[in-house]
Design a protein that fits this description.
Helix content: 10-25%
Mean pLDDT: 92
Low-confidence stretches: 1-19
Distance between the termini: 59 Å
Shape: globular
Number of strands: 37
Structural class: alpha/beta
CATH class of the largest domain: Alpha Beta
Oligomer: single chain
CATH topology of the largest domain: Purple Acid Phosphatase, chain A, domain 2
CATH superfamily of the largest domain: Metallo-dependent phosphatases
Length: 636
C-alpha cells in the first residue's frame, strides 16, 4: 500500500476498505475564528492603509473555501469580537445599528459564538444592545448574570448543533455536536467597573466539567469547548493555572478551540507543557486549534468519527490554522486570498465612516513618533503616555493629602513587533497627530488608576517587567535578547526614575535581581520611600502577574479611559503651542554595560531610517528574517 493510500486509510476514506468495514464512519469539520477585535475590513486604521494580514472579510474567503471542501461543517467564534479597533471605537461611540460585527456573523452563518473578556469592556449596556441583534447562540458557561440583568436571557452555557451526514456506506446519520463556551474568570476584575456588579465569572475548567453530563443528556455525540484562554501555565509555573490544557483533560471533552493570547496553534513555541503535542495539534491527546488574531487565520479541525452503539467516538483528526497571508522573499506580507465581496459590501458604510472619523486632528508632533526601539530604550511612544498619565494624576491629587508625594507613571509599548509581525509597530509621521494615531499609541480600553507604592514595590514591579529579556552570558556575541512567548505590553517603563537592567542576572521567576542603580532625582530609592504610581486598570488590579493592590493602596480609580487622557494631553499641548508637549528627554533606563557582549534584536525594517535617533545605542544592522523583521546587533 502506498504512502498516499495509507494516509487515506487513516482518514477513513480508502475506497477498497470502505465497503468491507461495517462500523459507520463520519467526518465533520469545525471552523473557528477568535480574537477578531472588530477587524472586519482588510484595513489598518492606525496607518489608514489596506492590509492583507487582518480582517474578517479576508477570513470569510477561507471560510467559504473550507466549507466547500466537505459535506458537513460548523462555524464558531471564540470571543473578543466586539472591541479592539478604531472601527469598534467608532461603532461604540456612534451606537451604529445594526451592529456591523453581529451583522457580519449573521451573514456568514455562525453556528455559535463565545464571549471573550473584551466583550465586557464597553459595559453591560453596550454588550446587551449588540447581543439582542444576534441570530445565533451566544455562549458563556462560566458567566453568571445577576437575576435582574438584561444579559442573562441573551447567553447560555452550551448549545447542541445538529448536522445530517452520510457515512461511507451512503447511510444518513444525525450528528449532534455540543458546544460549550468559557472565558477568563479574571474578566470580573479586569472590567469590574464596566460590569458594575451585573455578572460574576467562575473558574473555567470546573464550569466545563459541570456541563458535560447535561450536554450528554441532551444528546450530544461530540463535545467541543470554546475556551477563550491560552494553553495554561508554562513549565516554570508562570501563567494562568486555569487554561485550555486543564479543560482538555476533562473526561468527555473531545476538542478544544483556544484564543485570548493571540497565538497560532498548531505552531512552534506555543507551550512547553508535556501534554502539548504541537505536531499532532493535541492537548492531552485531544485535537485543539488557536487561530491567531484579527482574522489572521481560520482554525480547522476535521474530526473522524466512528459509531459505537448509539453514539460516536473520535477516531482520528486533522488540524490546521489556515493563514490569510504569507511572506515574500524579502519578508513582505503577501495576500493568500482576496476579500469576500459580499461581506466587504456589507461593512463598507461603517468602514468609510470610521476612516473619516479617525482622521480628526488631536495634536501635532515636529518629529516622528515610533516604537521601533521600545524594547531597547525609552521611546517617545511610551514617554508621551507616561507624561499624560503623570499630568492627569498630579492634577487629580493636587488638593488632597497626597499632593506632596512624587507622581511616577508606568506604561508599556503596546505595538512593538512580536507575534504581530514586523508591521506591528507604532509609527506616527511628523505633522498632525490624528485620532487614529492616538489609538495607535494606546490601543486598549483601560481606565486610569493610581497606587501608593513603596520603593521596594517599585523595584519588584520593574523586576517583573524585565522578565522577558533572556539571561545573557558575558563575553558571548550575538545572543538572542527577547523571549519569544511574551508580548511587548508586559515590558513596563516607569517614568520619573532612572535605572539599569542587568541582563547577566536571571529573570524574576528564577529569583533574579536585574534592576540596578534605581534612583529618583539622582538619589537611590529607599525601599520604604512613598510614591504615587499612575497606571491603568489592568495593571493596577494585579493582572498579568503583577501584585494585587493592598488594602488602601488604590488612591485613584476612575472610569476615565487612558486614551482619552492622552488625547486631552495632546490637545492641551497643541493649544499652548507646545507640539506634543514632550520635550526631548534623556533615557530613563538602560541595559547595564557588559564588555565584549552583544545581543540580537528584531524590529521593523523602517527602523533603519531612524538609527540616528538612538546614538546612545551601539546598533549594527544585519539582515532580514524570513518573517520580515530587521535584525540588529546591540553591543552592550
Amino acid at each position: 500500500m502506498s504512502t498516499q493510500q495509507m494516509t487515506a486509510v487513516l482518514r477513513g476514506d480508502h475506497p477498497s476498505l470502505a465497503s468491507k468495514e461495517t462500523t459507520a464512519r463520519l467526518r465533520v469539520r469545525l471552523l473557528a475564528t477568535s480574537d477578531l477585535h472588530m477587524h472586519l475590513s482588510a484595513h489598518d486604521y492606525h496607518a489608514d492603509t489596506p492590509c492583507v494580514r487582518k480582517g474578517l472579510c479576508l477570513t470569510a474567503t477561507l471560510i467559504r473555501q473550507a466549507r466547500d471542501e466537505v459535506a458537513g461543517s460548523v462555524l464558531l467564534d471564540n470571543g473578543d469580537f466586539l472591541q479592539g479597533s478604531p472601527l469598534g471605537d467608532y461603532v461604540a461611540r456612534e451606537q451604529v445599528r445594526p451592529h456591523p460585527m453581529i451583522a457580519a456573523m449573521t451573514h456568514l452563518g455562525y453556528d455559535a459564538v463565545n464571549l471573550g473578556n473584551h466583550e465586557f469592556s464597553l459595559g453591560i449596556g453596550a454588550l446587551t444592545a449588540a447581543l439582542t441583534e444576534a441570530r445565533f447562540p451566544v455562549l458563556s458557561a462560566n458567566t453568571e448574570a445577576r437575576a435582574d440583568s438584561a444579559l442573562g436571557p441573551l447567553i447560555r452555557p452550551w448549545v447542541v448543533v445538529q448536522r445530517d451526514l452520510t457515512d461511507q456506506h451512503g447511510r444518513m446519520h444525525r450528528l449532534r455536536l455540543g458546544i460549550i463556551g468559557v472565558l477568563p474568570p479574571e474578566t470580573a476584575i479586569w472590567d469590574r467597573q464596566a460590569i458594575a456588579g451585573e455578572a460574576q465569572m467562575h473558574p473555567m475548567a470546573a464550569s466545563v466539567a459541570r456541563q458535560v453530563a447535561p450536554l450528554r443528556d441532551a444528546g450530544a455525540d461530540v463535545i467541543v469547548v470554546l475556551a477563550h484562554c491560552g494553553i495554561g501555565p508554562a513549565r516554570d509555573g508562570t501563567g494562568p493555572a486555569d487554561g485550555a490544557s486543564q479543560i482538555a483533560a476533562i473526561d468527555g471533552v473531545d476538542a478544544v478551540i483556544m484564543g485570548h493570547v493571540h497565538m497560532v496553534f498548531p505552531g512552534p513555541g506555543v507551550s512547553d507543557l508535556p501534554e502539548v503535542d504541537s505536531h499532532a495539534a493535541t492537548l492531552h491527546g485531544k485535537p485543539a486549534v488557536m487561530p491567531g488574531l484579527f482574522g489572521s487565520h481560520l482554525g480547522v479541525i476535521d474530526l473522524d468519527l466512528r459509531q459505537e452503539g448509539k453514539g460516536w467516538r473520535v477516531g482520528g483528526h486533522q488540524v490546521e490554522a489556515r493563514p490569510i497571508s504569507g511572506r515574500d522573499d524579502r519578508g513582505g506580507a503577501t495576500a493568500l486570498v482576496q476579500p469576500d465581496a459580499a461581506l466587504t459590501a456589507l461593512v463598507r458604510p461603517t468602514h468609510k465612516a470610521t476612516r473619516l472619523w479617525a482622521r480628526g486632528p488631536v495634536g501635532h508632533t515636529p518629529t516622528a513618533i515610533h516604537s521601533f526601539f521600545a524594547m531597547l530604550t525609552d521611546c517617545r511612544s511610551v514617554q508621551i503616555v507616561n507624561q499624560a498619565q503623570t499630568a492627569y494624576v498630579t492634577r487629580r491629587l493636587a488638593e488632597g493629602p497626597l499632593a506632596e508625594l512624587p507622581v511616577l507613571s508606568a506604561s508599556a509599548p503596546f505595538k512593538a513587533g512580536g507575534l504581530g509581525g514586523p508591521e506591528n509597530y507604532t509609527y506616527i509621521p511628523a505633522g498632525d497627530v490624528l485620532l487614529r494615531h492616538a489609538a495607535d499609541l494606546y490601543i486598549h480600553p483601560n481606565t486610569i488608576m493610581a497606587l501608593r507604592v513603596t520603593g521596594a514595590e517599585l523595584r519588584r514591579w520593574l523586576e517583573y517587567s524585565a522578565r522577558g529579556y533572556r539571561q545573557i552570558l558575558p563575553g558571548v556575541a550575538d545572543q538572542i535578547l527577547l523571549a519569544p512567548d511574551l508580548p511587548c505590553f508586559v515590558y513596563d517603563t516607569i517614568s520619573g526614575l532612572t535605572y539599569e537592567i542587568d541582563l547577566t542576572q536571571p529573570p524574576f521567576a528564577q529569583g533574579g535581581q536585574r534592576i540596578r542603580n534605581l534612583c529618583w532625582k539622582g538619589q537611590p530609592v529607599d525601599p520604604e520611600q512613598s510614591f504615587i504610581l499612575a497606571t491603568n486598570s489592568y495593571r493596577g488590579t494585579g493582572n498579568g502577574g503583577y501584585a494585587p493592590p493592598r488594602t488602601g493602596q488604590v488612591v485613584l480609580d476612575e472610569q476615565t479611559p487612558n486614551r482619552d487622557i492622552l488625547i486631552a494631553h495632546l490637545g492641551a499641548a497643541l493649544a499652548h503651542g507646545e507640539g506634543t508637549g514632550l520635550a526631548a528627554q534623556a533615557p530613563g533606563w538602560a541595559f547595564t554595560a557588559t564588555p565584549e557582549t552583544s545581543v540580537i534584536f528584531e524590529t521593523s525594517p523602517m527602523a533603519a531610517a531612524h538609527l540616528d535617533e538612538v546614538p546612545h545605542l551601539a546598533l549594527t544592522p544585519l539582515d532580514r528574517t524570513p518573517e520580515g523583521f530587521l535584525r540588529l546587533r546591540l553591543t552592550l
